[in-house]
Design a protein that fits this description.
Distance between the termini: 72 Å
Shape: elongated
Strand order of the largest sheet: 3-2-1-5-6
Largest sheet: 5 strands, antiparallel
Number of strands: 10
Helix content: 25-40%
Number of helices: 2
Strand content: 25-35%
Radius of gyration: 25 Å
Structural class: alpha+beta
Oligomer: single chain
């Protein structure tokens, strides 16, 4: 049987060229994909925490709860963000008995786990527990634990500083489970901030390295 002389294959040189091109594409593409994946994970976590906070604060406006708490709980690894609620009856009874509303775990929360977020992909700018409590009109707003020790920073208002915030970063960027300061941030390290008012107005921001400021996200 006569061999078909029209069949052609790849030369060793051609195979080497193809392999070299694959190597170049991989070297360029993999780091970019890794950066994109990390940024996406952080942003998704920020959205979930922002939604959790808005959801429980909305309950005070609707009258479902008179007093609510959002806690950063570091008793487990990874840490958890947990929201809790106190009904109108429990809240009124406590006020009538002149009992403190100290925003602590000893409070009689009617729903001690309204929502929970396990922080698998992000860290905060602190690594010990703290909490925020809101009421409908802001009268019983309170910060406890590490959140009460926040440094005052400027976010949007260049005149009045605030300590009502949490800062979030990728776990791969944190140092000893704490997010880097803005002046220590490396290129392509995403950094987000969730800020709030005593009346429960919650907003998201992202650190803009080029402009050196927090911009609304």
């Amino acid at each position: 049987m006569q061999q078909d002389r029209g069949i052609k294959g790849f030369t060793i040189l051609e195979l080497l060229v193809v392999l070299a091109l694959i190597g170049i594409v991989s070297a360029v593409g993999v780091p970019n994909f890794t950066k994109w994946k990390k940024a996406r994970e952080v942003k998704n976590s920020v959205e979930k925490i922002y939604s959790l906070m808005n959801s429980i604060v909305t309950q005070t406006q609707r009258g479902h709860y008179s007093y609510v708490q959002i806690e950063a709980n570091f008793s487990k690894t990874p840490f958890q963000i947990i929201s809790k609620g106190m009904t109108k009856d429990t809240f009124s009874n406590r006020l009538n008995q002149n009992l403190a509303l100290d925003c602590g775990d000893s409070m009689p929360w009617d729903n001690s786990k309204f929502a929970k977020f396990d922080a698998d992909d992000v860290d905060l700018h602190f690594n010990s527990s703290g909490a925020i409590c809101f009421s409908k009109d802001g009268s019983y707003y309170k910060l406890t634990g590490q959140l009460d020790n926040n440094l005052n920073i400027f976010v949007e208002d260049k005149v009045n500083s605030t300590k009502n915030y949490i800062i979030l970063c990728s776990k791969s960027d944190s140092v000893k489970n704490i997010c880097p300061a803005t002046d220590k941030l490396k290129k392509d390290q995403p950094l987000y901030l969730i800020g709030w008012s005593r009346f429960g107005m919650i907003n998201k921001f992202k650190w803009n390295q080029r402009r050196n400021e927090w911009t609304r996200n």
